[in-house]
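To: structure desk
From: M.T.
Subject: fold request, one chain
Message: Could you run this one when you get a chance? Sequence is below, nothing fancy, just the single chain.
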Amino acid sequence: MSTLIIGNRFKKGLLLLLSIILVMVVVGVLLPSSYHVERSIIIHQSNKSIFPYLNKLQKWPSWTALNVNKDYSLEQTYFGPNQGIGSGMSYQGDKLGKGTITIIDNEMDDHVTFSLLINNRFDTKGNIQLEHVSDSTARATITLDGDVGFHLPNRYIILMIDNIAGSLFQESLNRLKTVAEMKKTQPIEGL
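Reply: Done. Structure tokens follow.
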């Protein structure tokens, strides 16, 4: 008799587990596959003063969350041109994982568009736009867009991407504001 009770409990447990998996698959199929993250900040400097920090990846550690303060094991390797389209950076760290950033488009004192591959899993497109507010003020906006396709686990992960990436973007923008506003003279570097 106890074997029959154990067998029924096993069947009920198995049915419950299969039901949970089925519900997770159905919900995963209904979840969005694409995502958009956006954050902005006002910086009291001209577009011309801010742009070199965006267009040269070697300057990104001074303002982005991709720096050794966030991950002491972080290693960065730069490739391609010194700045502008085609310049890139590969990074790897215990906390930040690994990834590659490549500048794919830019316009002087206006925007830098980049591709970002995170942990060989998320292939995204980002943009940092500078909007002229006044001669000495700009609005910097970072956006990140991507699509994970039909990969169900990633569809669950992107439910948290606005909070995760958004907080890193806001921290980066705050640092960019600090770095750019400390600069007294306008840099002469361009594309």
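Reply (cont.): Residues 89 and 155 are 27 Å apart (CA to CA). Let me know if you need anything else for the meeting.
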